């Protein structure tokens, strides 16, 4: 062990040769899909993908600064602005997962009879049932705000509780308060402390959570590894990727749906 | 309680099986922290000695700034170092972001004020003792500082160990500038943060126990080395 | 080698926070001998020695060696009333002033061992200096001051806290140093010691030189009533 430690200490500090640095969001990393995807990419293309796991906002900032070669995020409006500003030449949709509304099993707002996501939120607001919001400007938080906006509701009042925390902490808070909360399906399936909570509403396409790949424009940042980005992009949109992504299961459930064109 | 016990078991399992990932991130933790410590000591110890020996106009101000810098949140240091090393920042051409070198830079910024401040306090007391003697012997400024550093080595070891402890346990800054990239910049602390976020509490606690063990070993080894020195240096 | 002496003080004055510690003093220290600076407590003995050695900067007046100040500083040593030793071994303490002057380690160690023999410190060479007894500490301080073979040695109450035997040892070494050509300027409150070893006396009162001259003449026939009172053991104000 000591010899191994010494050997590692003497190794050079620099990174390996053909690597792609990609900024991804915490929810993607937490889904566990990366642990399946990255070894396949390395085996098929020889490119080692290094993930820098950060929030959506920071991921796009890293891309805009040229500090990563590509970005894989889920915030459509922000991505389009990113492309419009010229940081990436285009956004390439890869796959989606979905959000679910989680709440107490007793379902006090009667979400079971909701017709769509907007109706579900309207029922929560009408019954003033407690609702925990991430409140941290993450992709999930932005999706939640967009849903309230689409329902024509400005959430306000003591029943609406922004916690300014990550997904796990927000779920823990919701369990403690018996509140509704919007979560991505992967986080919910991997969550250990469910208490008396269950999925109260799911399935509306408005809840779909599109992941897109954005290669950083080499014209703007000459130091980015554009060839590696192209190789990884073509792999992510291949039939092999479709099989790996659609075949990924957590607790017997499919998390992601491949939809690249 | 069950998580803590599971963490203990996890730590033992990782050590007994010589887990390859564990060895890699442990070696990187030591490599980054010891390099940062070496650089920070090379700057901080003479600086502390110099501040104890030299009377100049803004000395109090410098000491106040030093003590204030100790309280600087590592996340802020990380952010500033990130902005400097970013491709779009002034030092972007060096391409150091998301490398162990960037993590070393951030740690040097974090622990140098701590080391300099502790060294200064120890050197100040020693200097009060030695002042007249060294002036009488016509020692140059540099000779005064080196004499204080050599004779105050026990206190300086304490300063270095404090720096080591802060660096090896630091997570906020190196997360930002290192990126916690698996196989490239992941170290013990960022791995602990990651596993906590994933809810793998047992693994996180296990890694934490290994981190504490390393800190204890380093501290014990340096005290042992100092106790067994046979002959004083000159 | 051009001699560093005489040392000449003209109206040399040392003030701190508006209070005169010593001066104005007019004094010449010529080559050879042992000068004892005596006087009641608070008369300025320590301040005068520190000022002459350059540990204190003159507030006014002048202090001149016959060589430039930077050179003069390398040809003198000082022994403090409370011995200050480095937190190192006795050997390292003795070699330290030589190492400061760029003497190679092997030569410095040889000279340190040689002077340790003279000062009966050989058995203590490997001990940490701070662990020595009072008499041993003062011997070490004196040996360390003399290892550079200074032309002038200032000693502030070198036997203040010592018993009879240790005092006799130190006096023997002081006399030997003076015989070897080192000019001694020492303060003492012990009139017996001043009578035993001094060749000249400077009697300080209220920071000024009240009376000075050859030791024998001073002790036989002090010229001023204050000096007479002091030698009689009266309180002098």
Automatic annotation (TrEMBL), chain A:
Leader sequence segment: 1-17
Gene3D superfamilies in alphabetical order: Periplasmic binding protein-like II (3.40.190.10)
Organism domain of life: Bacteria
PBP domain: residues covered: 16-239
Record keywords, A-Z: Signal
Entry-linked InterPro entries: ABC-Tungstate_binding, PBP_domain
Protein name: Tungstate transport system substrate-binding protein
Classification lineage: Bacteria, Pseudomonadati, Pseudomonadota, Alphaproteobacteria, Rhodobacterales
From TrEMBL, chain B:
Intracellular or extracellular location(s): Cell membrane
GO biological process terms, semicolon-separated: transmembrane transport
Domain of life: Bacteria
Membrane topology: Multi-pass membrane protein
Matches recorded under InterPro entries: ABC_perm_TupB-like, MetI-like, MetI-like_sf
GO cellular component: plasma membrane
Domain ABC transmembrane type-1 intervals: 26-222
Transmembrane segments: 32-53, 65-85, 91-116, 156-181, 201-226
Pfam families on file: BPD_transp_1
Keywords: Membrane, Transmembrane, Transmembrane helix, Transport
Family, per entry: Belongs to the binding-protein-dependent transport system permease family.
Protein name per UniProt: Tungstate transport system permease protein
Taxonomic source organism: Jannaschia pohangensis
Automatic annotation (TrEMBL), chain C:
Stored Gene3D superfamilies: P-loop containing nucleotide triphosphate hydrolases (3.40.50.300)
Domain ABC transporter: 7-231
Lineage: Bacteria, Pseudomonadati, Pseudomonadota, Alphaproteobacteria, Rhodobacterales
Listed name of the protein: Phosphate ABC transporter ATP-binding protein, PhoT family (TC 3.A.1.7.1)
A GO term for molecular function: ATP hydrolysis activity
Keywords: ATP-binding, Nucleotide-binding, Transport
Organism this protein belongs to: Jannaschia pohangensis
Coiled coil: none
InterPro entries named in the record: AAA+_ATPase, ABC_transporter-like_ATP-bd, ABC_transporter-like_CS, P-loop_NTPase
Cited PANTHER family: ABC TRANSPORTER I FAMILY MEMBER 17 (PTHR43423)
């Amino acid at each position: 062990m000591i010899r191994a430690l010494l050997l590692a200490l003497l190794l050079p500090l620099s990174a390996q040769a053909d690597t792609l640095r990609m900024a991804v969001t915490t929810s993607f990393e937490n889904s566990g899909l990366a642990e399946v995807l990255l070894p396949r990419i390395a085996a098929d293309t020889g490119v080692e993908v290094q993930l820098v796991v950060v929030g959506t906002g920071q991921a796009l900032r890293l891309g805009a600064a040229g500090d990563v070669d590509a970005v894989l995020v889920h915030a459509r409006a922000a991505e389009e602005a990113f492309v419009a500003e010229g940081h990436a030449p285009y956004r390439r949709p890869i796959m989606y997962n979905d959000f679910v509304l989680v709440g107490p099993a007793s379902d006090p707002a009667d979400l079971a009879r909701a017709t769509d996501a907007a109706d579900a939120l309207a029922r929560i607001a009408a019954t003033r049932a407690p609702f925990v919001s991430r409140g941290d400007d993450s992709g999930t938080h932005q999706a939640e705000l967009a849903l309230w906006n689409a329902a024509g509701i400005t959430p306000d009042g003591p029943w609406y509780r922004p916690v300014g925390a990550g997904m796990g902490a927000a779920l823990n808070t919701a369990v403690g308060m018996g509140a509704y909360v919007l979560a991505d399906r992967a986080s919910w399936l991997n969550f250990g402390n469910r208490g008396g909570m269950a999925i109260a509403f799911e399935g509306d396409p408005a809840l779909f959570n599109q992941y897109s790949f954005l290669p950083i424009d080499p014209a703007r940042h000459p130091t980015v590894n554009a060839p590696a980005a192209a190789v990884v992009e073509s792999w992510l949109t291949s039939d092999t990727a479709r099989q790996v992504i659609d075949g990924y299961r957590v607790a017997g459930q499919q998390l992601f749906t491949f939809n690249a064109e | 309680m069950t998580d803590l016990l599971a963490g203990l078991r996890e730590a033992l399992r990782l050590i007994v099986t010589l887990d390859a990932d564990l060895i890699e991130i442990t070696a990187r933790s030591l490599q980054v922290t010891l390099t940062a410590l070496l650089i920070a000591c090379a700057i901080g110890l003479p600086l502390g000695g110099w501040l104890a020996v030299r009377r100049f106009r803004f000395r109090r101000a410098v000491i106040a700034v030093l003590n204030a810098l100790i309280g600087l949140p590592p996340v802020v240091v990380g952010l500033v170092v990130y902005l400097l090393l970013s491709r779009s920042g002034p030092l972007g051409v060096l391409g150091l972001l998301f490398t162990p070198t960037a993590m070393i830079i951030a740690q040097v910024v974090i622990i140098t004020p701590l080391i300099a401040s502790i060294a200064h306090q120890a050197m100040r007391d020693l200097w009060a003792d030695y002042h007249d003697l060294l002036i009488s012997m016509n020692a140059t400024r540099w000779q005064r500082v080196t004499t204080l550093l050599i004779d105050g080595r026990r206190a300086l070891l304490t300063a270095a160990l404090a720096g080591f402890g802060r660096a090896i346990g630091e997570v906020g800054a190196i997360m930002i500038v290192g990126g916690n990239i698996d196989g490239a910049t992941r170290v013990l602390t960022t791995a602990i943060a990651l596993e906590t976020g994933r809810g793998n509490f047992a693994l996180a606690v296990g890694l934490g126990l290994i981190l504490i063990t390393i800190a204890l070993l380093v501290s014990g080894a340096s005290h042992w080395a100092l106790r067994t020195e046979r002959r004083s240096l000159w | 080698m051009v001699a560093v002496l005489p040392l000449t003080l003209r109206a040399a004055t040392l003030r701190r926070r508006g209070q005169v510690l010593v001066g104005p003093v007019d004094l010449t220290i010529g080559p050879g001998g042992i000068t004892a600076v005596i006087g009641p407590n608070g008369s300025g003995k320590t301040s005068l020695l520190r000022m002459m050695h350059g540990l204190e900067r003159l507030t006014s007046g002048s202090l001149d060696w016959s060589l430039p100040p930077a050179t003069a500083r390398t040809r003198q040593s000082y022994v403090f009333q409370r011995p200050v030793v480095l937190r190192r071994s006795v050997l390292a303490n003795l070699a330290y002033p030589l190492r400061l002057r760029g003497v190679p380690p092997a030569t410095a160690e040889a000279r340190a061992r040689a002077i340790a023999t003279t000062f009966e410190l050989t058995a203590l060479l490997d001990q940490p200096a701070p662990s020595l007894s009072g008499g041993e500490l003062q011997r070490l301080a004196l040996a360390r001051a003399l290892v550079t073979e200074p032309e002038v040695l200032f000693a502030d109450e070198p036997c203040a806290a010592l018993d009879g035997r240790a005092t006799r040892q130190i006096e023997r070494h002081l006399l030997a140093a003076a015989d070897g050509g080192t000019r001694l300027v020492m303060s003492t409150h012990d009139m017996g010691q001043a009578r035993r070893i001094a060749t000249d006396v400077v009697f300080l009162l209220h920071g000024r030189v009240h009376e000075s001259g050859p030791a024998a003449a001073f002790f036989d026939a002090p010229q001023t009533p204050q000096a007479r009172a002091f030698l009689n053991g009266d309180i002098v104000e």
